[in-house]
Amino acid sequence: MRKDKISVPVIKRLPRYYRFLADLKEKGCTRISSRELSDKMGLTASQIRQDLNCFGGFGQQGYGYSVDSLYNEIGQILGLGHTYQAILIGAGNLGKAVAVHMTFEKRGFSLIGVFDNDTEKIGTVIRGLTVSDISELEDFCCKNTVDVAILCVPKEAAPAIAERLYQAGVRNYWNFSHYDLSVEYDDIIVENVHLNDSLMVLCYKISDSHKAKTEE
Amino acid sequence: MRKDKISVPVIKRLPRYYRFLADLKEKGCTRISSRELSDKMGLTASQIRQDLNCFGGFGQQGYGYSVDSLYNEIGQILGLGHTYQAILIGAGNLGKAVAVHMTFEKRGFSLIGVFDNDTEKIGTVIRGLTVSDISELEDFCCKNTVDVAILCVPKEAAPAIAERLYQAGVRNYWNFSHYDLSVEYDDIIVENVHLNDSLMVLCYKISDSHKAKTEE
Do B204 and A97 touch (CB under 8 A)? Predict the structure, then answer.
């Protein structure tokens, strides 16, 4: 019996819980207390209890949580039971890294196509898929169910590609480009990975810690 | 005259402001109202005013914000004036993508070394740097100032590498590995990029939107 609305910060923590629980399962651990979980995750025990309460709470006083039920429940909340068909736009370094590096299947995704406009990349093979000419995009989207587009294109190329994908009916995006899709389209789902932003946040954290040290 | 403590969500938004303001500068735009900024950023005008108030607020009633001052101030808050020397650990697909793809210099970082333990990668050249044998790590850290380590290694390799980097005095990490460094070390600065987590969040958003549609 879980609440219907889970807050964004809790959602962002769910994958971490899921990873930790997967580790515990692998190690043959069947139960865990909120204290152990908090030690391992660097969160307070009360924060963990609060998080887990959001979706039912499997803890029994003195017995802790069942690793298996918690793992399965979080997987279900994350919607990992489905398989979504994804295409990758952009077969440059980043696109290639994403294609090769990600264990899509484990997360409920299946990569079914890769597209680029660079004649040197078209025809090469990435993760068993031949890179197609971007001109074939609409035709491909017609003939296949494309649930998700992974955008690994330069910022300048993103608006035009996004428009073509949108017109072809694609509504879910994993966006690595520095283009804010959701500003242009309001009925799409976007998860952004802005690596430059992340680097800037690191920069902030470092300079902030220097400041703190100087003030000490 | 800005406040000393800026909240995490505001900090996470700063790079986006910074990007948008860079775009505006490029287009020759000198002033912008909070309403225009909010339209472009997909935030409410009041949220933007609140954010910008955190660090002084450059807005004048009816005149909007000066693009230049805002850009410079945010850059300063982000600590972009420095140059931090970074090394990359792991020259696989992901490490290569990060090395080639990122405009480090623009973000105040300079990549000065790349390390791997794979004899096939050692000696190859990435972004003008020859990939060194990981056995040379300690020596390198002795002879150079290493402010940041970029971890692009598999999860299994991360704990041992992290320990070596920590012993060599590295305290700042841009972490792409699925290993939670901050649990092990409490006096380090870490910015995590967990691509698998991001993919799971996308999965959640998609399945959540399906649920919402079914319930309509």
Answer: no
